[in-house]
């Protein structure tokens, strides 16, 4: 089975710290931050300022023209009504032609130029801040990427380890079941056979020469030993069962034990 402690230690060792990630990619981070700061500070921001100023200036011009047109229409209506009522001297009651918008636009232009000059004086500081931001961002990003990689590898390892653990447990279970099965199936059975040269032997009802003869065992016949024996003087008698199921005793003087290992289902 896989050693989980060593494997997880390797994963944690390969996962760099923030300082290691910074040292590894500092050159690339500086290049990216420098290029990004140049683009943002010297191109993107000035273009945005110019675009906003152009849009604002055009909007003010449109509003000024609209206000002038509105003033002319009001003056025309005022003069028209005065002539209807036969007023000889027509005072200029409405002197509103939108010049205040032009003054406002000029003031905003001055403010915009002041803002641009202030921004030019701070461009280097802004560029340094942008470079520092990109270095920090990419360092944390690489650190998180390594962390995600280690987590993914650890998940894969744990899934593989579970498979191996299950396989090892299954193997041990099969070995245990096999050993039990072998112990159960391999059975030693003891039989009784006539000694070599004995043509036949009497089977009696009891372990004694005076007991009634109930059967005859022929040469080569196998009798099942019933795990019981007795002595009659110096003679040993074995309790046996014939192939036909007859139970009796046979003398040990003409027979002997034979052990046979058999497999039973």
TrEMBL record:
Regions crossing the membrane: 29-53, 59-81, 126-146
Signal listed as a keyword: no
Domain of life, per lineage: Bacteria
Keywords: Membrane, Transmembrane, Transmembrane helix
Family annotation (Pfam families): SH3_3 (PF08239)
Domain SH3b: 184-258
InterPro entries in alphabetical order: SH3-like_bac-type
Name assigned to this protein: SH3b domain-containing protein
């Amino acid at each position: 089975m896989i050693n989980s402690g060593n494997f997880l230690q390797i994963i944690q060792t390969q996962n760099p710290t923030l300082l290691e990630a910074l040292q590894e990619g500092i050159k690339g981070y500086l290049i990216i931050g420098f290029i990004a700061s140049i683009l943002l500070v010297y191109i993107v921001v000035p273009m945005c300022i110019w675009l906003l100023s152009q849009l604002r200036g055009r909007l003010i011009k449109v509003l000024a023209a609209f206000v002038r047109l509105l003033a002319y229409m009001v003056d025309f209506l005022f003069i028209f009504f005065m002539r209807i009522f036969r007023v000889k001297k027509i005072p200029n009651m409405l002197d509103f032609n939108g010049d205040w918008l032009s003054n406002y636009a000029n003031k905003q232009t001055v403010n915009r130029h002041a803002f641009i000059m202030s921004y030019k004086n701070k461009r280097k500081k802004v560029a340094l801040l942008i470079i520092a931001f990109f270095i920090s961002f990419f360092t944390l990003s690489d650190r998180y990427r390594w962390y995600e990689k280690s987590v993914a590898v650890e998940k894969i390892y744990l899934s593989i380890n579970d498979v191996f653990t299950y396989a090892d447990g299954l193997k041990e279970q099969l070995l245990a079941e096999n050993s039990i099965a072998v112990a159960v199936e391999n059975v030693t059975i003891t039989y009784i056979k006539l000694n070599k040269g004995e043509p036949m032997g009497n089977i009696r009802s009891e372990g004694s020469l005076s007991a009634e003869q109930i059967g005859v065992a022929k040469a080569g016949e196998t009798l099942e030993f019933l795990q019981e024996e007795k002595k009659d003087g110096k003679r040993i008698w074995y309790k046996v069962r014939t192939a036909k199921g007859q139970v009796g005793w046979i003398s040990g003087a003409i027979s002997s034990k034979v052990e046979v290992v058999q497999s039973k289902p």
